[in-house]
From TrEMBL, chains A, B:
Record InterPro entries: KDD_N (IPR058932), NAD(P)-bd_dom_sf (IPR036291)
Gene3D superfamilies: Medium-chain alcohol dehydrogenases, catalytic domain (3.90.180.10)
A Pfam family of this chain: KDD_N
Domain L-erythro-3,5-diaminohexanoate dehydrogenase N-terminal: 8-154
Protein name: L-erythro-3,5-diaminohexanoate dehydrogenase
Organism: Paractinoplanes globisporus
Length: 344, 344
């Protein structure tokens, strides 16, 4: 098992898995069960990019310099403040003789494991990136382990579009599963951050699974976009960090607290609003990397809230295909993603 | 709703719930739906006490001084480093005319909501506490809100014992529920930190719900205690922060990965071992306040692990009675708790 999860790539501290490691060995030479990717583009996690952009007040050169420094220091794009990474696309260069992954040289793939555990070397100084967006053109190499997950890019989607979808594809797949677990019940789903990538896909998955849905968004502009796209049965505007206001809006939009509340807002402090918005016996799914474990655990206890709280797992079998299929089935979602990738 | 969850007690920042607040108003005068408790004893959360003890290298006077400073500054015993609190026992002094809680003056109660959201004033300088244990004799006042939870202390248990049980009573109740959710399947449960308070109760709850159990403990001394008490079907020694070793031990002890892994080890870095120890389709329940949300979310993704990950909710209806009843049903567990409370 040790090689298949990348233990041989961990430089420090010894013995931890690559995600927990401070520093990885990003050498391009591969072991027998590894795969080397020629990198084309990184897609930084939204929380990570936002932290960098805020810290450097939107100065693209400074943002680029810090990304380069993180990768050079850690051997991976693992934001030390947010703890999050992102994903990448590239072309398979070499497949080890014992790799279990269904890949061959020349395949254009997206990695579906986080950049926080992917050995990464950047060789072009990110010269083609202006630092102004979470989509980062890059040259260099990345390594996949035996137990990594990568998807060959679909022919009918632009690579940037596929990457944006794959980055959040765990969210709609888990939302679908949780809605279906309440079989036979009338299910309502509130999505905090319903206008974003994971939010719009989660809304779509919930509705296709049979739930009545409400999107909670931060301003009228986002509300308009969600309404125009017909993404949710109800749309409400509230600051997700204001628990009293959020729960009031959700209760009004759905005629009561939600069976399931999905948190897709990548700012800290949304735990209590989500818990207060959820009915007894309901479920909160936390997809935001800004979620605080103690705030959620102690918040539910302090509110005497009998809700199931899930840490959003980025992996479910078939999650990438499921998410891409949502774009094919619901053109309005595809248009939202296309607009986002185009920078509108 | 605003008063019932304590919003009127929040001094800063405005608008957040008491648990998220930096500072609470701990004045002893109560509103119509509040209850005032005359404090007798605090029980600090294990992670919080450990952090303080480590920081001050076991110096009891320094630990006491910092606890006093935290309570004076924040109006609650909310450790700013660990984000955790604990619980308290005391006697009901005054019940507001509109309080929904089934309490009356003179009742000896334990609060079942965290100290991180309980307005607290200490009036004796903690003069009776030597700073050497997480059980803190104290004089002062605490406030319960309309939506708080408190339990009248049972007649057949010493107060210190009841408090120690209540402090972790969410863990066995949720473990019981999750085991029963796998109805009809043969369920195995691994508990990381099986010798501790929440661990031993979780092991006991899992077994009584029909699961085959394994305790993972940190050394031979703990292994001996768990074996002597007959708490688990198998006992293994491993460092819970070493994912490869933990998963090897669990797999060996149970004849395969666990259906359910319960994390009760109050040190950081146990997420990946728990995930690796759990079978596809299984569940990880995180009860440790040292759990990192991103480490769990990204770890499962990075390991392509299809496991459900639960944030351990400290509240389930009936959890306090359930946990106390485990002590009554299993004398060996009661003896472990008695020894722990006595400081052995």
């Amino acid at each position: 098992m040790s090689a298949s999860v990348g233990l041989d790539r961990v430089l420090e501290p010894a013995g931890v898995l690559p995600q927990a490691a401070w520093r990885l060995d990003a050498r391009p030479e591969i072991a027998a069960d590894e795969v080397r990717i020629a990198v084309e583009r990184l897609n930084l996690d939204a929380a990570s990019y936002r932290q960098l952009a805020t810290k450097h007040e939107g100065d693209g050169d400074a943002i680029r310099a810090e990304v380069l420094e993180i990768v050079a220091t850690r051997g991976k794009m693992h934001n030390p403040v947010t703890g999050s990474g992102g994903m990448l696309i590239g072309v398979v260069e070499e497949v080890g003789s014992e790799s279990p992954l269904p890949l061959k040289p020349g395949d254009r793939v997206a990695t579906l494991v986080s950049l926080t555990l992917t050995p990464l070397r950047i060789t072009d100084g990110l010269a083609s990136w202006d630092g102004k967006s979470e989509q980062v053109p890059a040259r260099g190499t990345a390594i996949l382990f035996g137990r990594s997950v990568a998807a060959v890019l679909p022919a009918d989607l632009a690579p940037e579009l596929a990457l944006a979808v794959y980055d959040v594809c765990g969210a709609p797949a888990l939302t679908d599963r949780v809605v279906r677990d309440y079989e036979g019940e009338e299910v309502t789903v509130a999505v905090l951050g319903g206008a974003g990538k994971s939010g719009s896909l989660s809304l779509t998955a919930a509705r296709l699974a049979g739930a009545r849905t409400a999107a909670v968004v931060v301003n009228d502009d986002e509300a308009g976009r969600v309404r125009d796209a017909g993404l949710a049965d109800a749309v409400a505007v509230a600051d997700a960090r204001d628990p009293v206001e959020v729960s009031r809006q959700v209760t009004e939009a759905l005629g009561g607290p939600a069976t399931i509340t999905v948190v897709c807002v990548d700012v800290p402090g949304c735990e209590h609003g989500a818990i207060l918005s959820t009915a007894p016996g309901g479920t909160v799914i936390f997809f935001s990397m800004a979620t605080s474990f103690p705030a959620a655990a102690l918040g539910a206890e302090g509110l005497a809230a009998d809700v199931t709280m899930l840490i959003g797992n980025g992996y479910l079998p078939g999650h990438a295909e499921f998410a891409v299929d949502l774009l094919r089935r619901v053109p309005a979602v595809r248009r939202l993603f296309e607009a986002r990738v185009a920078g509108h």
